[in-house]
């Protein structure tokens, strides 16, 4: 596939040819510019955690398997990953490190070495996944990981991966995610002060290893890519489109990014939920994140028409230009759908991702996958960002006994209170925590009363969410913005339970209205829920 763009010039998109016996491949660029492929084979015992690791050039030549064997998946792991170290001798697989001698490119001996995670995460009944994402710093020492919990929460850890005699341990672990999103306002009884929401799904160390690209939220309702600094309090929103923006993987010079996003999938893009800006929108959006993900991402991969990118972006434009879209790199017929991981060749001129053929994942068979490379023929990258020591802790870290105490407590969000507008009014919130292990729904409601931070735009109305894995998840909004930037939401969106595919429901509800109906309007744009598919 060949495309020509205004921002990036000519782009050539091709597949990486792989041998015929490679099944269910996953691929990423290494620090030397080779492609590391994690794959299965028809000759393997199916369903018994048997894997192969190979290295190959991105034109398909010089394919060489360097490891074959069982990689036992832990009960609370999120699969197997293959994250290269900058030393080009090791791969972090999640619960193991694959050590290669003398290096990945010329490996003659590969050893699987276990990793022990701190704080007893695997045995903790509050843990649903002791890691869902893992990343390695270019300093070859530090790793960060996201732990998912049964209380709908997530914890992000940071620590130094240290080689012991019989395995790896994570030394000096700290929590770098927000534990309490609301703290009491000392000047007003019953009022609270919102705190920056750090954490989310970690995706890449950036700024030479002193910051992290993650899936999180700052001032948006839907997930966005953010950069979380480890040396300061800085938290920046990278993607600002109103749709679902998840992973951003930065190029070596950090001028460009490849984004997993719904923005090029008009029939499954949940932009209607993020079109109208709302203060502290994450209070209502957090409980809806899983439903939006399964509708927008996993549903599109398995049965629903659409795509989830990837989209090539200019980082500076994405952060500063309202409405910036970037360039979609997905196949126009959308039969192949993006899958993680994404990576960049160290030259900065090539970027790689995976795609799955929709509907090819069936019981007893391997998915049909392909490895895609986009070659930016006219792009002239700058020098790569140099590696810097990764801080062992951040100004907002929680460590030691405080970290252990934080992990022992189930999420108990402040059940009700108010947040004062900087200029006038207030918003009132009510929240109820859920529990995945017991099937208990989470719920939240925000009511705006003449709320304004800037004295130019004022909010009236409400939005509320009831979130459940096993029954309908419902979001409702009756919200009006008046003043300099008018807008409104008159909307109800209802998704079925996860076992039913998290489908957007349009049949009649008990009030005689469709379960999903209505619109959002802002900035001269109106989006209607009826334009989305099911």
Secondary-structure map:
Blueprint: E1 2-5, E2 9-15, E3 23-29, E4 35-40, E5 50-56, E6 64-70, E7 83-84, E8 90-92, E9 96-101, E10 109-116, E11 127-136, E12 142-149, E13 154-163, E14 168-175, E15 182-184, E16 192-194, E17 201-206, E18 211-216, E19 224-229, E20 235-237, E21 245-250, E22 256-261, H1 282-285, H2 289-302, E23 311-314, H3 315-320, E24 327-328, E25 336-344, E26 350-357, E27 369-376, E28 398-399, H4 400-408, E29 416-420, E30 424-432, E31 442-452, E32 457-467, E33 473-483, E34 487-495, E35 517-522, E36 525-528
Parallel strand pairs: 10-14
Antiparallel strand pairs: 1-2, 2-27, 3-4, 4-5, 5-6, 7-8, 8-9, 9-10, 11-12, 12-13, 13-14, 14-28, 15-16, 17-18, 18-19, 19-20, 21-22, 22-23, 23-24, 25-26, 26-27, 29-30, 30-31, 31-32, 32-33, 33-34, 34-35, 35-36
Structural class: mainly beta
- Unreliable sequence segments: none
Say how many strands there are.
Answer: 36
- What is the CA-CA span between the terminal residues? 30 Å
Rg (C-alpha, Å): 23 Å
Tally of separate helices: 4
Biggest beta sheet attributes = 9 strands, mixed
Arithmetic mean of pLDDT: 94
Q: What is the 3D shape?
A: globular
Strand composition percent: 35-45%
Helical residue percent band: under 10%
Task: Give a quick precis of the structure.
The protein has 534 residues and is mainly beta. The protein has helices at residues 282-285, 289-302, 315-320, 400-408, and strands spanning 2-5, 9-15, 23-29, 35-40, 50-56, 64-70, 83-84, 90-92, 96-101, 109-116, 127-136, 142-149, 154-163, 168-175, 182-184, 192-194, 201-206, 211-216, 224-229, 235-237, 245-250, 256-261, 311-314, 327-328, 336-344, 350-357, 369-376, 398-399, 416-420, 424-432, 442-452, 457-467, 473-483, 487-495, 517-522, 525-528.
